[in-house]
Amino acid sequence: MSLVEIKNLTKTYQMGEVSISALKDISLDIEEGTFVSIVGPSGSGKSTLLNLIGSLDLPTSGSIKISGEEVGKLSRKERADFRGKHLGFVFQNFNLIPVLTVYENVEYPVLMVKNESGAAYKERITALLDAVGVLDQQSKRPDQISGGQMQRVAVARALITQPKLVIADEPTANLDHDTAYKIINLMKKMKDQFNTTFIFSTHDPKVIGEAEIIYTLEDGKIQNREDRRAK
Amino acid sequence: MTKIAKIAYRNLLRYSRRTLLTSFLIIIGIAAVLLFIAIGGSFKKLMVGQITDSMLGHLQIHRKGYVASIDNSPLNLNLSVKQMETLKGVLDGNESIQSYSARLKFGGMLSNFSETSNIRLNGIDPENEIKTVPLLSQRVTGNSSKSSPTLNQGELWIPETLAKGMKLEIGTQVVIVATNKEGSVNGVPFVVSGIVGAMTGPGGRDGYLNIKDAYQLLRIDGEEYNEVALRLSSFGNLDKTFSSLGKELSSIMNKSDKQVFEIHTWEKLSPFSNIADIIDLLTLFVKVILIAIVLVSIMNVMLMAVYERIKEIGTIAAIGTSPGKIWLLFLFEGLFLGIFGAIVGSMVSIGIIELLNWKSLTVSFGRQDSLILEPTIAISEVVVTALIVIGISALASLQPAVKASKLEPVDALRHF
User: Fold this and answer.
1) How many domains does chain A have?
2) Closest chain A residue to the Cα of B11, Cα to Cα
3) Residues 93 through 112 of chain A touching chain B, CB cutoff 8 Å
4) B7 contacts in chain A (CB < 8 Å)
């Protein structure tokens, strides 16, 4: 069964009297436990597609089902609950909360979204920080660590709620090549370790090669789907 | 909810500069209001105490119609012996009344044999008068060799203003000339035995003589009075006693079936009651200003916090924080700012009040100098003001909190 099922998805933005079609009749399926990359030039609709899959935005038409749930029909609160329960996010600019420590940033979704208490989640945070290689930085604030470390923390934050799907919009855009490569490999390792599906967008050809399935977007349409798992 | 409250508390600690700046504004506001209430209240209490305890008493009873022409000190509205006996019967049986002093007030001419001036005089029984208005003795300066000035027959206490103007001193011989209610003029010599310090309000520039001398001067056979000043056991019972005495006195009629007595509180007789009302009104305005300061500063700070933390809001919304929790988070932050400001502000104001008491704050009012203020603030006043501030803080946070909760994560995340 597919984790993500998208059918005839369109997204149109109204800018005054002008309509801009960001996505045009897109259909795709993403299986559970895959490492998927959405590639394409700037303005091709990568971020729009990820925002729709992440239920951060609503489609103009078409349907998006995640784990069988039609997310486009959920209310604002239901979408928030759905994101908290099933999705994790990694952002291009890391989006760590500047006044919180590394540990507290990872803890935040547990307290605010999962409403967990007790010692179990604390052990999980420590284990996850260790897995992404920033356990020794846990008491530092984001401005005291490097960009690569910040993105590692963001990956840990995305995974702490044990989501089925992690969406990463240009997670390596603000990193140098070596660090970008390490982050992609970290995400891949986490996918294997936790059987979490990762969908990330990028236009860095060197990290694209790490994806198992690559969707190429151009002008709001899927131009190509490449499945590299058999290779 | 406890977790959200803890996170809100942590956010305030981490955004320390913003927290301190806002708290500082609230602390200044609440401290200013409580200080104003304490100082204004103590000034009011002091002045009311001065007026009631050295001149007016808490309540005054006159013959019906006297107060309407009180400035003339009319002698044709005096209380007769019989009426006074009736009144004594009412007053002696009332446990709320600590003491009372019957007076005979009239106007006359004061002469030092070279100059003559108008003077308003109070014929009093010194013992009853001091019991009823105990601060009067503090206003009177007598011969330095005596502990307290006497007011025996043949002695006169003259107001300070006249003493200065006519160069009168203790021991000076003067003559008082007065006209009685039949139009007969009489003059009696007196020795100045006391100089009465001036006070603001009616009676503040009056002279005093023994009531027996007043009878002699006005050629009154027997006893007559035109004012009875009352001192209550507790000033707090003023309204209650006024009401009960008013009812009792209004039922006493003369032969023509007309009311004999009228009763007034000090407030009706002294213009200072208007100043006291103004102080109360100012206190109310200052409270309103405080509310505005707290409302504007917290709303401004919380709105700025929403704008400054728009990306943070977008992030926490994206990871699944519900709009309700985001709303609650910002509401708690505003509420905690209010609670912190209210507690510290109250403590600061209580500290300053203690300091002012220790330093003996003095003020001048009218012709009175070196009045020592003793600012105090009731705990209930502190609690009410603090609760108002906390309530307003929560109210001021509502709109920014709603704004934060309504942000679409996709829009907030695009914000730079």
Assistant:
1) 1
2) A99
3) 93, 95, 97-100, 104, 108-109, 111-112
4) 108, 111-112
Given an 8 Å threshold on Cβ–Cβ distance, is B14 in contact with A80?
Answer: no
Write the residue in A57, A76, A99 that is nearest to B11 by C-beta: A99
A162-187: per-residue pLDDT in tens?
Answer: 888 989 888 887 777 777 787 788 77
Torsion angle of the four alpha carbons B48, B53, B59, B61, in this order, in degrees rounded to the nearest 10: -140
pLDDT tens figures, B262-284:
999 988 887 777 777 888 888 88
Rounded to the nearest 5 percent, the helix, strand and coil shares of chain B are 55, 20, 25
CB of B283 within 8 A of CB of B37? yes
> Rounded distance, CA B303 to CA B78, Å?
70
Closest CA to B83 of B182, B181, B223: B223
Domain ranges of chain B: 2-50+274-414, 65-259
Look up the domain containing A16 and give its range.
Answer: 2-227
Is the Cα torsion angle B137, B138, B139, B143 positive or negative in sign? positive
How confident is the model over B348-402, as pLDDT tens digits?
999 998 888 888 777 766 556 667 778 888 889 889 888 988 888 888 888 888 8
- CATH at residue A9: 3.40.50.300
**d(C-alpha B323, C-alpha B311), whole Å:** 15
Report how far residue B194's alpha carbon sits from residue B156's, in angstroms, rounded to the nearest whole number: 7
Give how far A49 is from chain B: nearest CA, Å. Answer: 12
Query: Which residues is B121 bridged to in the sheet?
Result: B106, B207
Minimal-distance CA residue of chain A relative to B320: A84
- What confidence category does residue A47 fall into, taking pLDDT thresholds of 50, 70 and 90? confident
ipTM computed for the complex: 0.87
Residues B297-312 have pLDDT tens digits of 777 877 787 788 888 8
